[in-house]
Design a protein that fits this description.
Radius of gyration: 23 Å
Distance between the termini: 58 Å
Helix content: 40-55%
Largest sheet: 8 strands, parallel, barrel
CATH topology of the largest domain: TIM Barrel
Bound molecules: 3-methyl-2-oxobutanoic acid
Number of strands: 8
Strand content: 5-15%
Order of helices and strands: HEHEHHEHEHEHHEHEEHHH
Oligomer: single chain
């Protein structure tokens, strides 16, 4: 039997970078999926506020609350005890002030045993990152397409396609690194911009979501990988298996078998001994 995996730590992640080995990261929001991701050897898990869309059916991530996040993150931690779990700070839980940001980051650590938190935004959020890091909490920045600002960004589009916007993302990455972020996620940024940022990072791990192969590791949204989010499939999301189709076929099968009286079969129910049954009937008579 193989040894159980040791806890994934910050030094482990930096060693992977130093060894030139890519880091694996996926979103996850529930216990059974966390269990499977842990078994598969996934190193990092993001309990993303995307759960507002993928699990709760909202149109955007904006209605998600800290309490939603804490409940789901606790379930994920129970399923993946050794993964490096990142709590994603929901809308307006860090934007209002540094103090609000520290308090809510602290909730992730104390109530849900996360290893780090992630928040969206560039230089304007650098003081939030610094405050959180000064409070002893590892912090991750998120640049490029930042879903909480989708309205200001004008939709779910690639960010930094022209030189000026790309330069701003590169400057933002430096500001977050200087503020103490140990990792930055680049979402939907052109591959060469991601490469420039990765090459310039001194003490910061750069991760890609749809930003190409040059980062130190990759993140994907679990529901996109397995056909579990029916509303749309972004280009960056490779489908690694169509679980949505498998489940839908299974559900139709169940429906048809109940209607057709094929389910349940004898192996799906519980009986009792004849003498007990006869006595029961006598008692009823
Ligand atoms: O909430 C989330 O899953 C995210 C990803 C889109 C990176 O923040």
């Amino acid at each position: 039997m193989s040894e159980p995996r040791k806890k994934i730590t910050l030094p482990y992640l930096f060693k992977k970078v130093a060894d030139g080995e890519p880091i694996t990261w996926l979103t996850c929001y529930d216990y059974p999926t966390a269990y499977l991701q842990e078994q598969a050897g996934i190193e990092m898990i993001l309990v993303g506020d995307s759960l507002g869309m993928t699990m709760l059916g909202y149109e955007s991530t904006l209605p998600v609350t800290m309490d939603d996040m804490i409940r789901h993150t606790q379930a994920v931690r129970r399923g993946a005890p050794t993964a490096f779990i990142v709590g994603d700070m929901p809308y307006m839980t860090y934007q209002p002030s540094v103090e609000t940001a520290i308090r809510n980051a602290g909730r992730f650590m104390s109530e849900a045993a996360t290893d780090a938190i992630k928040l969206e935004g560039g230089a304007a959020m650098a003081d939030r990152i610094k405050g959180i890091v000064d409070a002893g909490i590892p912090a991750i920045g998120h640049l490029g397409l930042t879903p909480q600002s989708v309205s200001a960004l004008g939709g779910f589009h690639v960010q930094g396609k022209d030189a000026h916007l790309a330069k701003r993302i590169i400057d933002d990455a430096k500001a977050l690194e200087k503020a103490g972020a140990f990792m930055i996620l680049l979402e939907m940024v052109p591959d060469r911009v991601c490469k420039l940022i990765t090459e310039r990072a001194e003490n910061c791990i750069i991760m890609s979501l749809g930003s190409g192969p040059h980062a130190h590791g990759q993140l994907l949204i679990y529901h996109d990988m397995f056909g579990l989010y029916p509303r749309f499939k972004p280009k960056m999301a490779k489908v690694f298996g169509n679980a949505g189709e498998v489940i839908l076929n299974g559900l139709k099968g169940y429906h048809d078998e109940v209607i057709g009286r094929q389910f349940p079969a004898a192996e799906n129910w519980f009986g009792m001994k004849d003498e007990e049954y006869d006595e029961l009937v006598k008692m009823l008579d």
